[in-house]
Specification:
139 residues; two-stranded parallel ribbon; two-stranded antiparallel sheet; 4 strands; 62% helix
Length: 139
C-alpha cells in the first residue's frame, strides 16, 4: 500500500472517530499527529494537507472558506467534541483499537472452538465409517 493511501486511511479513521470544530489546519494536524505520531515529521505535512482538502471536497469534513485562514470542522455530534484546549487527549482511538482487538480475539477463539468441534465430529464419523466398512465386508 502506498504511503499516501496509508495516510488517507488513518486520516479518514481520525475524522470519523473525532469531532472537532473551527480548527485551523495546524490544530487539526496536531490532533492527528497526537493520535498517529509516526506522521509527525515535516515530510508528511503536504500529503496530509492534500488529503484534508480531498476529504473536504468529498464532504467528509466541512471547510469554512469565509476567512483568510480556512477552518475545518467535522460532521460529528457535539457530544464527542474535541476542543483545541485538550486536542483529543482522550484515548478514544486507542480504546477503539483495543475494543476491536478484543472483539477479534473473541471471534478468533469462537472460530477455533468451532473448528475443533468439527474436527472431533469428523473423527467420530470416520470411526463410524470404518465400522460400517467392516460390517459390510462381514455381510
Amino acid at each position: 500500500m502506498s504511503l499516501e493511501n496509508e495516510i488517507k486511511i488513518c486520516m479518514t479513521r481520525f475524522v470519523s472517530n473525532t469531532a472537532f470544530s473551527n480548527f485551523e489546519f495546524k490544530d487539526l494536524l496536531h490532533a492527528f499527529t497526537t493520535i498517529n505520531p509516526k506522521y509527525k515529521s515535516g515530510k508528511f505535512y503536504q500529503k496530509i494537507y492534500r488529503i484534508v482538502r480531498k476529504l473536504g471536497e468529498e464532504k467528509l469534513i466541512f471547510i469554512d472558506k469565509t476567512t483568510c485562514n480556512y477552518r475545518y470542522s467535522s460532521l460529528m455530534k457535539k457530544q464527542n467534541q474535541c476542543t483545541k484546549s485538550r486536542l483529543c487527549k482522550r484515548p478514544y482511538y486507542k480504546t477503539t483499537l483495543d475494543s476491536n482487538l478484543l472483539v477479534q480475539n473473541k471471534l478468533k477463539s469462537s472460530i477455533v472452538d468451532s473448528v475443533e468441534k468439527l474436527r472431533s465430529d469428523l473423527m467420530k464419523i470416520e470411526a463410524d465409517l470404518q465400522k460400517l466398512k467392516v460390517l459390510v465386508e462381514v455381510y
